[in-house]
Amino acid sequence: MDIDHQERLLNRFRIDQILARGGSQLQKVFKERWKKWKDEEWKDSNAAELVELCEKAGPKAKEKIKNDKIDLWDITATCWAIQAISSAIPTNKTETKAIYELREARNNMAHEAELTNEEFNQKWNHISNMLVKLGDNYANIKALKTELLKIGKSGVVASNVEPIAKSDINKESDNDRNDNGLENDLSDFGLDNENGAKENETQKEKLTCVEDGRCDKCDSKAEYNKLKDEANKFFKEENFDKAIEVYSKILQLPGILPEDKAVIFSYRSIAHLSLKNGDSAKMAQKDAEWAIQLWPCGWRGYYHLARAQIALENYFEAEKSLNNAIALNPSSKEVRDELSAVRSKIGILSRCEHLNSAYQFPSEKEQLDQIHTRTGMSKKQTKKLLNKAMDIPVFGDMIRGKNYMLGKGVEQDYTKAAYHFEKAASGGDPDAMYCLGLMYHEGKGIPQDFTKSMELLLKAANTVTNNVLIGSGIPEAQHLLGMKYSEGIGVAKDYRKAAEWYEKAVNHGLGSSANNLGIFYKNGQGVEKSSKKAFEYFKLAASLGEAQGMQNLAHCYLLAEGTDLTKPSDEYHAEGLKWLKLSLEKGNMNAANDIERFKDKNKDDLKWISLINKVLSQTSTNTDVLDKEQHGTAIKESAKKGSTTAQRHLNIWENIELAMEAFKKNDSAGVVSGLATSIRLDHEITEVPEILFSVIDERMKTHADDLDTITCFIHTKRKKNNLLYLNAIDEYLPKFPKDEYLLEQRITSFIDSKSLKDALITVDKALEFYPNSLRFLYLRAIALCTQDKQQEETLKALNNFLSAAPTDHDKVPACYYQKAIYYNNINNIPKFIEAFEAGLAAEKKQLPCFLPYKFHDKIYLEKIFENHKTEKASKNDSSKIPSTSSEQTLEKIKLNRQRKFLIDKHRQNFIDIEENLNSHKGTAFTGTSVKPPNTPKPPRLSSLKNITLKEMNPIEDKPYDGYVLEVRIIDWAYVVSGIAGIIEDENGDLQRLAIYNWPSKGNRMLDTAEALKSFRPNSVISIINPYMRMSRDMQSMIRVESPGYMLIGKSYCNGLL
Fold first, then answer.
1. Is this prediction's pTM over 0.85?
2. Where on the tree of life does the source sit, at the highest rank (predicted)?
């Protein structure tokens, strides 16, 4: 959370706090008026009578008056109570007006999530005046504000004291504990008193016995402390029912201040949550809400509310509550860990894993069926083999751990599972490391610990071994590390690192990582934005059996996103629906909704949906250019390589940090100096933290002629107050006529108001002062581009900027796209294509913080570009001899992620096999069993129908009898217990090939030579009754039973690999 956002949240909490104080003041007013009306003190037993008088009050207000003690009434309920009795007694008009203004202020705040400093001060002053009219003490209100303004700064939190349960009910925070494990008591009745300073007026007020009985120092406080100690003792003994009973007694004591009641409600919330029965979570949530109402600036109230919301599975609300807690106490590790856990849950929900059976652990029957399909072993043989494996060290503990984790043959027990995983992990098993890391990640069977989880996952992910398979724990650990960096779970969010880990898992054949990388390329997160690369990764994910990847691939086909065609077609519509049905078969219930959504759509409907999606994609991804946590490493690396754009970024960060340090020292000159330097470096990306606005405004009153102060003042008013912004430029530019920032703001204001003649006059004058200024060269080009009728001068201005700017300058792509617009307007198609392609190339040189690149007209330029390219390709094709459909361009081959994956895997298997044979280790064939569960019918050459790979189901173990599959070999074959190769069909789709029962010459060298000769790259073969086989490595391949199922032909692709 950035400091600006934190401060806006804190301002909201501070207003909630003074409103809570106002609620207490209203309760006091009610008691005084009740006594005047009834001539007796208010008692809670009078509630039923009062409810009868509140005829017009809403049900919630009536319920609160009837069932709760008066000090738990909110402002709405109290105002209804005051109104019900006030008509019968004389009242003070000023006081009555203040009552209703306070209620109005509370109602207005119900619609405010955050407040700027200016809004906060306005509301605080308004509410303070009302409280004084209701009899509150102005000095005490001022003291409260002083204390509240400290909250959220390093090491300063509002007092909120809580017990610790043995069962890890409340995670420890080092700065909250004293030596005996309890949090520092802070005298039970006071606010934090930083550095042991003297108590302020608010604390004195709370520690002094007063006439109205709010605090009885001699009796109530002693009883409070006695009962609290008793309740805490029950709590630590985990006797939560008794603890709740005693906490409830404390809440009945007279004269307890709201802050102290908030503490007890927090205690009781944890106790309710610890019971884990019936409505305990709802009771915990209610108590946490009471704690927040009584003390809105206590961070633990929000923390406990989040814990209750988690128990009720309201994860999105819990994330909001935890963000509020972090705003109030940024240094709390327990809150950040809880936020990581909630984000993990939200990620699961967002990915709809709960609706996708493919993400669920398979049952014992499903596992046995899977082993039978992939190995050909019977279930009896499989069980016997697994029983024998139980006696093998490390492997046996791994099996026992999974049995306990899944409840397979034993009662499910995560603690015992963790015990066995730990034993296996200590023996070096990467799968055990992954499983144990996952358990620490989820907090199952062992306390949730993101640090230990990272350590184990990194160890598993970096395990070096030959022939890494799905299920080994290595790709799974790499995937989970990608998820952690993607979602910010236990680590800082970093899409680049996430992409790197996903890529490693993809290289080992994990479909879920391929799908996530596809999403990254689609959105431009951590990688360059590319719909074509996204399509290729979704295609790879689908081929690896990933259900979500199948659904995303279907969307690509249905909407023609990243595909060969630029517009939806009937063929793509059918292909998209096919993949949705396959996704549904894999257990993805969301695919069913998409089938209903798309099945009756025509091409025009799909074109419209595609256009809407593209427009939304240009606006939905909101990248923080100055997010140092996300982009810092990459920027530093680029700066070291000599990038002046990256160095500018580093200088902006450095100066903003200097400004913040100056702010902590109350050095306003240092604040504006640092900020003004950053603004002058790049005013478009420099955002002034809102907590510094008041510093700038105050300094402006005393240093109105200081250029740094003026620069900061104008910059802060640029978006918030356009009139004040323009007036300030008018006032100060004559005083500083050569200042670059002021000149730039004047030119920009002219361009925005379409005063293009004035803009050009001003920018030309600026260029006289600064002839090499990139910002003025750029603004001159933009001013000319904005004219209704562009002239050749526009093109010259754009070229002037491009020749002067470094290639990674963030305005370079925009200038190329402006050139494309210029050429399109004069109908120069070749130059348009050249300029647009130059813009795309320039995007690739941008710093990652500027990606995905945003240009307002890019969507429409892309459409024009695609249409021109299609027309050009059609003209070229008509003038050439028709080529075979299997020929692919080099660009398409390079983009084909499945091709790279299959060839890399194939060649690695070749190397591993040779190494194993040379070391006499032996090896099994790359995937399929010698005795598969299905067998193709004997081959017959008559009445065969052609089939392609896309017409075969890649996730079903099935022979396609009566069909012939024509393919070509695209890489050198190798020999083990059969012949392995990679094939490609006429559509350019690829698959692995396994040929069995090839006649041997009795010599492996001769067999290998024969295989290389017969199955060299570009050899054409026709496979009769092709068998789509689910292999032991969890991936599909085409199995050929014997040479009799093949016809070997000649090469037809002229050397293309």
1. no
2. Eukaryota
